[in-house]
């Protein structure tokens, strides 16, 4: 989930709050702190200030307590609310090519994100680290950080894309799109926005597309496109595009000016009760729990589209990578190993409400009720046949660029669903010819 492109406007370094927002590539790391060897960790801000404080305690204070030979410099970077995924990739490459790159950093997995950095020679292979430390990452998740046959990353977050809903405004979960339309029409009649959806950063449209094609094609249909000879320019894909990016727009189910509305702005409409439903990822649970006070929140998978199956997108979001030019690669490896320890992983689940990409004993976990429901929904693993895919994590960079910019045009009415599905197929065929399509794990 490329959610790293829109974060709260603040910067933290080692737990000390600094005014303003930082651009990716602006990291400024110094040498040893107090004689200890520095580990430079670049990440993104957590969803809430409470989570951010917890992250600092876990990723800095607790790590330094258990590994006193190291001093952790934790750098939180932002790329601004208007940044696109393409810009973020370029900015990350600039950061890693600088004279003072991070040792370890958090970034999205998949060939269109981590794979781009690996292809540019900016990442260290981690096969030896996996073997020496016995990292028990789910094999399917590990494949998301494997590029050209080499493992470069450690997936650290499993996600599902669902539809959150205000139980005061949506008393029953719709089972079909017709029921959903009827509900949305009633909400509009009460001057309530049916869906909180903003696409200023463009990647939210990619998530909506993932919901649609996972639904109409199912897991097997997507596998046929992703790993065999299936195509994107089909009537089913066009139908999904038309539903989310033309039909719902014409019916007024989204906020006005959605192409200029940020992801955070859309979330705010849901929190305030101005919007009844919010299609986004399970990473938002903690913010919802801490922000929403006036109503109860539930979630459901997008209902069947004309009799199709219900296959919510799920898979790996972010992962941890070690820079090729890291000044302290050993410290980076030890930091990752620390995060994967059972006791640390349990803290991360409880404090950050993150679903790890490796086995953790769930007994006795203290988590919010909404997060418990998410854990139960993903209990069979997101690779179960009932789940679809979050497409951008599996797709190459050129496909993602066509996806993000193209859907903006479909939303604006300047490109048809048929034209977009054809453009997606062309981009996919090009990437396939170039050998940039991910292999099946």
From TrEMBL:
One GO MF term: maltose binding
Organism superkingdom: Bacteria
SUPFAM superfamilies xref list: Periplasmic binding protein-like II
One GO term describing the cellular component: ATP-binding cassette (ABC) transporter complex, substrate-binding subunit-containing
Gene3D superfamilies: Periplasmic binding protein-like II
InterPro entries: SBP (IPR006059)
Keyword Lipoprotein included in the entry's annotation: no
Keywords: Signal, Transport
GO BP of this protein: maltodextrin transmembrane transport; maltose transport
Presence of the UniProt keyword Signal in the record: yes
Entries under Pfam families matching the protein: SBP_bac_1
Family that this chain belongs to: Belongs to the bacterial solute-binding protein 1 family.
Name assigned to this protein: Maltose/maltodextrin ABC transporter, substrate binding periplasmic protein MalE
Species this chain originates from: uncultured Rubrobacteraceae bacterium
